[in-house]
């Protein structure tokens, strides 16, 4: 992970339950728009802000991620949170990545929904000083309707964060919708990479029990 040429590293965290085409397009957008050397996909062990009743096992989520990104040299799986275990807090991950990549500039990539939840993240004021947050707008969301008060953070962070909102070729795909479609016996073709679609079917993931 520590490479002299990795000066600008993007970080995309989440449950990846499962990883889908929207994640990959978001990562590619960030790679190009921010001129990053690579994107780290960081699956969480246990998300502190989400219910985990439908969370696939760590092994399944990691395997699907590996399948999805294996042919892209700019995408890399990072298992720091999985190895650490317990609740996955971004502040701990960023501190570790800074230790491993002391000369790199870190860009944490989020969606517009996460921007409005940042005030609930652990040690958010410290976290904002350690890396640059870049928000990609979701389709159909009017960024003009989001003001500084909506972000609920102390100055100067609302203004800084709003200046780092970008748009790109994003797809309105969610992991929850994919899980719903699988449970209802509907197709998820094109919503996830073909290898991930086959893996979900082979291991009977997300079906009704």
Helix content: 25-40%
CATH homolog superfamily: HUPs
Major beta sheet, specifics? 6 strands, parallel
What structural class results from the helix and strand content?
A: alpha/beta
Task: Specify Rg, calculated over alpha carbons.
Answer: 17 Å
Q: Beta-strand level of the residues, as a percent range?
A: 5-15%
Q: In what order do the strands lie side by side in the largest sheet? A: 3-2-1-4-5-6
Q: What's the number of domains?
A: 1
What's the shape? Answer: globular
Strand and helix order: EHEHEHHEHHEHHEHH
Number of strands: 6
Quaternary organization: single chain
Q: What is the CATH C level class, in words?
A: Alpha Beta
Q: In whole angstroms, how far apart are the ends?
A: 40 Å
The number of helical elements comes to 10
Could you tell me the CATH topology label: Rossmann fold
Low-confidence stretches: none
Explain this structure:
This protein is an alpha/beta fold. The chain has a single domain (8-172), classed as Rossmann fold. Helices cover 39% and strands 14% of the residues. It has helices spanning 21-33, 58-69, 80-84, 90-100, 112-115, 124-130, 148-151, 157-163, 175-183, 194-202; strands at residues 8-14, 38-43, 75-77, 105-111, 132-136, 165-166. Strands 3-2-1-4-5-6 form a 6-stranded parallel sheet, sandwiched between helices. Strand 2, helix 2 and strand 3 form a beta-alpha-beta unit. Helix 2 runs antiparallel to helix 10 and helix 4 (90-100) runs parallel beside helix 6 (124-130). It is globular, with a radius of gyration of 17 Å.
